[in-house]
Design a protein that fits this description.
The complex is a heterodimer of chains A (358) and B (282).
Chain A: E1 11-22, H1 26-36, H2 40-47, E2 50-61, E3 65-69, H3 76-83, E4 91-96, E5 99-100, H4 106-115, E6 117-120, H5 132-136, H6 138-142, H7 147-160, H8 176-189, E7 194-198, H9 206-223, E8 226-231, H10 234-240, E9 243-248, E10 251-256, H11 258-263, H12 268-274, H13 285-288, H14 292-298, E11 308-310, H15 316-325, E12 330-335, E13 338-344, H16 345-353
Parallel strand pairs in A: 3-8, 3-9, 6-7, 7-8, 11-12
Antiparallel strand pairs in A: 1-2, 1-4, 4-5, 9-10, 12-13
Chain B: H1 3-6, H2 10-24, H3 26-48, H4 52-66, H5 69-84, H6 88-118, H7 120-135, H8 138-149, H9 153-177, H10 181-189, H11 194-227, H12 235-246, H13 249-275
Helix pairs in contact in B: 3-6, 4-5, 5-13, 6-7, 6-9, 6-11, 6-12, 7-9, 8-9, 9-11, 10-11, 11-13, 12-13
Classes of the chains: A alpha/beta (358), B mainly alpha (282).
Chain lengths: 358, 282
């Protein structure tokens, strides 16, 4: 997973301190938050309002898959619906492609949803009285694309998800995994820049889920789409996401790459989550290597230049393979032709155990 | 305290209203009467102009072609029974009455039902009205209907419409409330216009329940049209009334069974016709 994200790439979705408060006295609660900076618990106590999303800020850049991970009730489904204004934010600013979506009128908003933001649902939401092809063409129908044209595009989208032979079937004739492919094809067919994925694979069995995760990542990257992907499964977030946001009780606790989250969890909640995650493909050489001088001190009779070499981006899996091939107990990490550090067996073990800093 | 002082008599308030309507809106009611009469007569004339067997053959062929073989068999049996029972003319009159009443009931109930599903306050407002419409004994509607439209087929139709609206309206509201939330969300998320959401998502999803509503509307209308024989609406209702007043068991039973035949025929036909064109999803 390439986690190096170019900071200069265009920000497609920008959320700034977004709040969503549910309840009858929400407007009063919003006022109290802006004026007195009330916390979530105080809002619940004083106004009997539930805070769905609290002060959430995030940026999704072009070409990026951004995962939002949280357990049920963490506000992740609310947050994703704020991005295409299926839910109105109580407070804060959401900008999509440079336009503030709260300020769009009804037809501008429809246009934005039809052209720029696709959505895939956990429940798939296929229309039972329509064929697979007609379902895949639904988004284009909303844009007013002529029948022949939209069926041609929908057929191409179905081909991309491997359902070319199923176009004239009805949704109930398809398995859960295939139905979700139709949902994905429907989102892709409308050719949006951003695809919102609301726990799309949660209801599928593990094998199909993995397969769809890989296919989804490949497809999104090859088409150059950006995606916001909601999941309650950290492993899924790590497999798919370029960056991950961890949500708890409506608050974004940490945002970072998979490696950052696993190696430097922001708090106890996150570290509890990452405890069970395999580090083999997440932790990179630059995190577990020791400085060359320190290595020379402890093992003076070992020549650094004779060690096998690797890049700082090599993960622990690759490092283990290299160490096994070598007759020495260490691997040199080389960047731009110079040795920048050494990974010893101790370092590898620390990385696997999740204590890279120590 | 004298209980007579607090006795409640809505009739005391309603009767003047009916009188007032009668004096001030007579031309309007007259126009309504003429319009309904004209439509009814046209339908009746069409049904009765050819010889009965020709009408039956045409109906069976149409049913076979547009709906299905099974419905065409039901059509043949039901209509032949009406002919053999000796009530061909009466049956066709009743059929015309029911058709007109149902078309008007549905065209009033369907949009109001959608409104009720959209606006909860509107629903809360019309619910007691619907309760009254459904529980007041149907004879009671006949009184103001006859006062305004005088005896004949038109008050019968009006009373039938009043009786046919509630089931259709309630089931329309239910049908629209039952449209899956995720499909509605899909509509909004894809930027579909409200009109397209109605026609492409809501109505197709609501169809099974709407069909039940239509079915109830047809059957209740048929029952009411028969009652309306009392106010001179003619048709099978008149035959049943005659059987009752003369205590002729045979006449009453034949007319009653003809009504059953018509009911089954209308039920299967409407169901089959509306389910056709839908996918095999049930």
């Amino acid at each position: 997973m390439n986690t190096a994200m170019n900071d200069s790439s265009e920000v497609l979705v920008d959320c700034q301190s977004v709040w969503k408060i549910f309840g009858g006295r929400a407007p009063a609660a919003v006022k109290a938050i802006t004026e007195r900076g009330l916390s979530k618990t105080q809002v619940l106590q004083d106004f009997d309002c539930v805070v769905g999303v609290s002060d959430a800020s995030l940026q999704v850049r072009r070409g990026e898959i951004f995962c939002i991970m949280g357990l049920s009730g963490s506000g992740k489904s609310t947050l994703i619906r704020l991005l295409n204004r299926l839910i109105e934010p109580s407070l804060g600013k959401i900008t999509v492609k440079g336009k503030e979506i709260a300020k769009l009128n009804a037809s501008e908003l429809r246009d934005m949803r039809a052209r720029n933001i696709g959505m895939v649902f956990q429940s798939v939401a296929l229309l039972p009285h329509r064929t697979v092809l007609e379902n895949a063409a639904f988004g284009l129908e909303a844009q007013g694309v002529a029948k022949e044209e939209r069926h041609r595009i929908a057929r191409a989208a179905l081909e991309k998800v491997g359902l070319a032979d199923w176009t004239s079937r009805y949704p109930r004739e398809l398995s859960g995994g295939m139905q979700q492919r139709v949902g994905l094809a429907r989102a892709i067919a409308a050719d949006p820049e951003i695809i919102l994925m609301d726990e799309p694979f949660s209801a599928l069995d593990p094998l199909i889920r993995r397969q769809l995760q890989d296919e989804f990542r490949q497809l999104t990257k090859s088409l150059g789409k950006s995606a916001v992907f909601i999941t309650h499964d950290l492993e899924e977030a790590i497999r798919i996401g370029d960056r991950i946001a961890i949500m708890k009780d409506g608050v974004i606790v940490q945002v970072g790459t998979a490696e950052e989250i696993v190696t430097k969890p922001a708090d106890d909640y996150v570290s509890e989550f990452v405890a069970g995650i395999s580090r083999i493909h997440l932790v990179k050489a630059h995190t577990v290597m020791r400085p060359v001088a320190e290595f020379k001190n402890s093992q003076p009779n070992c020549d650094v230049n004779e060690l096998l070499r690797t890049s700082p981006e090599a993960d622990i899996g690759e490092l283990i393979d290299l160490t096994m091939q070598s007759d020495r107990d260490a691997v040199a990490v080389v960047e731009n032709g110079t040795v920048v550090g050494v990974v010893t067996i101790r370092g590898l073990l620390r990385g696997v155990a999740g204590k890279p800093a120590g | 305290m004298n209980p007579d002082l607090v006795r409640f008599s809505p009739g005391a308030y309603l009767a003047p209203v009916v009188d007032w309507l009668n004096t001030n809106f007579h031309p309007f009611f007259d126009a309504v009467t003429k319009l309904i009469e004209a439509v009814l007569s046209a339908i009746e004339a069409t049904l009765l102009y050819p010889p009965p067997y020709a009408t039956i053959v045409v109906a069976v062929l149409l049913a076979a072609f547009f709906v299905g073989v099974r419905v065409s068999v039901v059509t043949a049996i039901a209509l032949t029974f009406c002919l053999l029972a000796g009530f061909w003319t009466a049956s066709m009159q009743t059929l015309a009455l029911v058709t007109v009443a149902v078309i008007i009931s549905v065209s009033i109930a369907f949009p109001l039902g959608i409104l009720a599903s959209r606006y909860k306050k509107f629903e809360a407002g019309i619910r007691p009205v619907l309760d009254i419409m459904q529980t007041v004994p149907p004879w009671v509607y006949l009184i103001p209907a006859v006062m305004i439209f005088s005896l004949g087929r038109v008050p019968a139709i009006i009373a039938t419409i009043v009786y046919g609206i509630p089931p259709m309206l309630r089931l329309t509201t239910l049908a629209f409330n039952q449209v899956p939330k995720d499909l509605m969300e899909l509509g909004h998320a894809t930027g579909t216009s409200p009109r397209s959401i109605l026609f492409k998502i809501e109505i197709p999803s609501a169809t099974p329940t709407l069909l039940v509503g239509l079915n109830q509307c047809i059957l209740l209308s048929l029952a009411m049209v028969v009652l309306a024989g009392l106010v001179g609406a003619g048709g099978l209702g008149a035959e049943v009334t005659r059987g009752l007043t003369r205590m002729e068991m045979g006449l009453g039973l034949r007319a009653g069974l003809s009504i059953v035949a018509l009911a089954i025929f209308l039920d299967r036909l409407s169901r089959g016709a509306l389910e056709r064109g839908r996918s095999p999803v049930r």
